[in-house]
């Protein structure tokens, strides 16, 4: 089992490093390319910041495990960041979905689409994301798990698990799925709305809106599937189908870490302007010219 502990921690480090690299690439490109300074990309930037925090927390936890550091004074704080980090990522995806709802369904209400209003929503989101885990921390629900050497809400702690599970996974997931179907239904019921989709530009915008929502939904599905083992272990324990196993948290966080790093890659390669800028940078590094710059004589 010592081999499994070491391998799982090393895999967490590798996945987290990959996620951090993708996040830094995204952040640098957005900060240095003016064409990326749109509200849509800035909301993805917000999710990337959350992903950077989540991946940094995971790599920190994995390093502590590799160093065999036991229950130190900061263990419960790391446990809070470890579990709440995933929640922050989900919360930022909710903000992205809300913005798409405002742009598509409530397109006539310009006040909901202004930069000032969206920044206010982001600020409220971060206040909630930072504070929602504090009641669990201060009431002592985050405890040191001897077998897995992780401070977290125990799988046997029903109140703590339901509280965290609801605010991290289920409520954000249901909210995003509802918004997605609300937008799709609106587009089907209003094929010739204020976006004038009978024109070429309108049709392109229609496809762009659907593509953006699908990207958000893809991220949520990936994060949910990879976070599902944690929920599954909880059910198996409380239905008395299996006895608690010390390595359940390790397996769960290994899947979660992989999902968080994958979400950073998806942000990088599916955000059109950022992707184009990245391709141009790669071409310049290898001395290749952009084909669009060639003029046929």
What does this structure look like?
This protein has a two-stranded antiparallel ribbon. The model is unreliable at 194-198 (pLDDT under 50). A hairpin with a 4-residue loop joins strand 1 and strand 2 (150-153). 74% of the residues lie in helices and 3% in strands. It is mostly helical and 297 residues long. The termini are far apart. The protein has a single domain (2-283), classed as Rhopdopsin 7-helix transmembrane proteins. The chain is built from nine helices and two strands. Helix 3 runs antiparallel to helix 4, helix 3 (75-104) runs parallel beside helix 6 and helix 6 (158-189) runs antiparallel to helix 7 (200-238).
* Number of beta-strand segments: 2
The CATH superfamily name is Rhodopsin 7-helix transmembrane proteins
Task: Report strand order across the widest sheet.
Answer: 1-2
User: How many structural domains are formed by the residues?
Assistant: 1
CATH architecture descriptor name: Up-down Bundle
The portion of residues assigned to helices is over 70%
- Report the CATH topology name: Rhopdopsin 7-helix transmembrane proteins
Ranges with pLDDT <50 over ≥5 residues? 194-198
Task: List the helices and strands in order.
Answer: HHHHHEEHHHH
User: How far apart lie the N and C ends?
Assistant: 68 Å
Largest sheet: 2 strands, antiparallel
What count of helical segments does DSSP give? 9
The chain-level mean pLDDT equals 81
Q: Specify Rg, calculated over alpha carbons.
A: 21 Å
Broad CATH class: Mainly Alpha
Approximate strand percentage: under 5%
Overall geometric form? globular
Task: Give me the secondary-structure category.
Answer: mainly alpha
């Amino acid at each position: 089992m010592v081999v499994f502990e070491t391998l799982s921690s090393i895999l967490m480090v590798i996945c987290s490093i990959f996620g951090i690299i993708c996040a830094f690439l995204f952040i640098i490109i957005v900060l240095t390319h003016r064409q990326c300074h749109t509200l849509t990309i800035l909301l993805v930037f917000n999710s990337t910041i959350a992903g950077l925090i989540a991946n940094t927390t995971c790599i920190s936890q994995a390093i502590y495990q590799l160093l065999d550091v036991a229950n130190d004074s900061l263990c419960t704080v790391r446990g809070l960041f470890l579990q709440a980090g995933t929640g922050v990522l989900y919360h930022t995806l909710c903000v992205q979905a809300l913005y798409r709802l405002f742009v598509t369904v409530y397109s006539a209400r310009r006040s909901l689409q202004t930069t000032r209003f969206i920044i206010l929503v982001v600020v409220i989101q971060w206040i909630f994301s930072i504070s929602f885990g504090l009641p669990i921390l201060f009431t002592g629900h985050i405890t040191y798990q001897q077998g897995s050497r992780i401070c977290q809400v125990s799988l046997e702690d029903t109140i703590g698990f339901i509280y965290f599970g609801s605010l991290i996974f289920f409520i954000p997931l249901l909210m995003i799925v509802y918004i997605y179907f609300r937008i799709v239904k609106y587009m089907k019921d209003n094929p010739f709305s204020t976006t004038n989709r009978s024109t070429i530009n309108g049709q392109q915008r229609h496809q762009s809106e659907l593509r953006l929502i699908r990207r958000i939904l893809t991220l949520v599905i990936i994060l949910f599937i990879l976070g599902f083992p944690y929920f599954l272990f909880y059910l198996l324990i409380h239905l008395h189908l299996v006895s608690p196993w010390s390595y359940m948290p390790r397996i769960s966080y290994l899947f979660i870490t992989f999902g968080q790093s994958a979400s950073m890659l998806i942000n990088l390669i599916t955000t059109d302007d950022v992707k184009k800028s990245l391709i141009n940078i790669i071409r310049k590094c290898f001395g290749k010219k952009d084909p669009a710059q060639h003029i046929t004589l």
